[in-house]
Write a structure and sequence with these properties.
This protein is mostly helical and about 250 residues long. Helices cover about 60% and strands about 0% of the residues. It has helices at about 25-35, 50-55, 60-90, 95-105, 110-130, 140-145, 150-160, 165-190, 195-205, 205-215, 225-235.
């Protein structure tokens, strides 16, 4: 009979970066950010499909501008700032604070499509966490029972259980977003594979700046409104042909 391997949460410090000294943590980060993570992120375009339909995005340059603007003006001001507070709540074992910031994340989704995509991916990641052998998630059952959970909240919990520090978690979240958008753009714009790789290279250079901005925000400044993104995701529902979910 095969013995079941369990592990406790790896203690982490919010400002400590151990990836360079710990190959296991690096592999956990790669696993969490992998396109193979079964959360359904590949099925959502986050408004990009309609932006292509309208001609707002039609080549490599406009694709870079679309993703860059959303990263620096939306992801930085919402998800990355909230990821900071969500992981701090976990470090301090403060479930009430975690619930508050999870609700804040959901309230920041400006269209029904963005909200549904966020919740669908969040729930999928929470289901996965419960089934991964080697993770002791029993202490977090109260969190797992959140009625609606944002993907960034589930990502924060996953990063914590995987023993990742804040910087690694935020970097990984940015990469997952950029990678998803570039993959969608290669199908929609369309772009060549080399153009896609160049975009990944260029966009990833903006991650450090986005994280620094996010970590300087006060609580009252968390949140962003991008009307064009909100309209693109809302109008996507009635788009005549769609490759991505609405």
């Amino acid at each position: 009979m095969e013995a079941k391997v369990t592990a406790t949460v790896i203690p982490i410090h919010m400002t400590e970066n151990r990836l360079s000294q710990n190959p296991l943590r690096l592999n956990r980060l790669l696993q969490l950010c992998s396109a193979n993570l079964p959360v359904g992120g590949f099925s959502f375009s986050q408004g990009l499909e309609y932006a292509v339909e309208m001609g707002w995005v039609n080549n490599a340059k406009s694709t870079q501008e679309w993703i860059s603007f959303n990263l620096n003006q939306s992801i930085a001001y919402t998800d990355l700032a909230l990821l900071n507070r969500l992981q701090k709540s976990l470090v301090e074992d403060d479930f009430g604070s975690f619930h508050k910031w999870n609700q804040h994340a959901l309230a920041c989704r400006e269209s029904n499509e963005l909200y549904l995509a966020d919740v669908a991916m969040g729930k999928a990641l929470m289901r996965l966490l419960k089934d991964i052998q080697g993770i002791d998630s029993q202490h977090y059952v109260e969190l797992i029972k959140e009625r609606e959970i944002s993907f960034v909240s589930a990502f924060a919990l996953s990063a914590y259980l995987f023993g990742l520090d804040l910087n690694a978690a935020q970097s990984g979240f940015c990469w997952a977003y950029i990678d998803n958008q570039v993959a969608a753009a290669t199908k929609l714009v369309p772009l060549g594979q080399t153009q896609g790789q160049n975009l990944l290279f260029e966009l990833s250079e903006q991650v450090e700046q986005a994280i620094e901005l996010a970590n300087q925000l006060d609580d009252e400044n968390i949140g962003a409104s991008l009307p064009r993104l909100a309209m693109a995701s809302a109008w996507h529902e009635t788009q005549y042909t769609r490759l991505f979910r609405s």
